[in-house]
Fold this sequence. Notes:
single chain, 14 helices, 2 domains, MetI-like fold
Amino acid sequence: MKARVLAYVILGVYTIISVYPFAWMVSGAFKDSAEVLRGGNLIPENPTFGTFARTWGELDFLRYFGNSLVVTGGTTIGVLVIYSLASYAFAVLKFPGRKAIYTGFIALLFVPGITVLLPVVILQGELGVLGTHFGLILPFVNGTAPLSILLLTNGFRAVPAELRESARCDGASELRTFLSIYLPVCRPALVTIALLTAVPTWNEYVLTRVSLSDPATYTLPLGLQSLTATTSPQYNVIMAASLIIVIPVIVLFVLLQRYFINGLVGAVKG
């Protein structure tokens, strides 16, 4: 009993520490600049929505939102298509070197992404895609390979082999079996991968910062950074912009959290 109470206390403290910065950001978005600088209470003294209207204009939100949507959507679609097919092959098909190749992909989980930043930028330049959204999508898709293959392969392995054998006996091709049986059964794992891909891509700053130079191609995090590059940044505007940026991610997670949790549980069991 004491251990359980202690665990609840620790989790409660951790929750407060984790949530407080977000609560402060929400609070600051409804304050004027002077009140933000004074600090004080978490609840705004004179709540205002004017900051959001100002932020919308200064951030050029629609342009940056569209750019982020292109990069995030392209990356997520690429990951789901490429790695669902690859994971099906690892989980179901028999071919030489399968275990070695799979192990090699999983080993990449332990390679920090920052260590390959410079090679990625050099490769972008050599391919002629530096400064383009396509040049961002390629490394984002590639960087998601280890985790995507791990989760999806475990998900496909959990599908009873009898279902595949029955489909093959009925004359279904390998692709038809994949599309009609494995994908529907592993929908939670696919949603989990989609979320684990979309959220980091939407929030990515480092690679986009070194890859993009034209403000017309900026994504939302780069647009937010431009608000701080002034001699006297307006922190209420920055907080309002931050809130606008994270709202789509929160809404997406709330809508898909059931599939996300089931996908993680299924991957662990697999």
